[in-house]
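go over this:
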Amino acid sequence: MSLYVLDTDHVSLLRHGHSRVVVRAAQVPADELAMTVISIEEQVSGWYTVLRQADKDIARLARAYDGLLELFQWAPTIRVLPFNEPALIRYFDLRRQFRTRGKLDLSIAAIALEHGAKVVTRNSADFEGIPGLEIEDWTADVAAG
């Protein structure tokens, strides 16, 4: 069994119907497709920022609340991997090794490594060179496999 962890960008692409990502995700058994709690954190944070910036703009507030609601309705349709103690230990080790990499990307990588999963991303530079981590891009013409 393979496990594929979508990074936050691929989660957004899947949620918004990117044709290649949707087709590829449909080819993977449901129990082999996941995202991390980090992606939920990033998306909630994004909607929260929109809400704060919308102030009294009724149309922007309505769109932001619609987006937040849609996220919470969609999230239960996919397995969510935790950022548990073993993943946190691995994360802090990765932070020491890759000081210039983004914290959230390293968090996703640590969680994927703890589960023996491949990270699905189109931002390969964020994940390349991390020992033991495999990556794929489902937006590419031909998905690696």
Remarks:
- The longest helix spans residues 37-54.
- The chain has a mean pLDDT of 93.
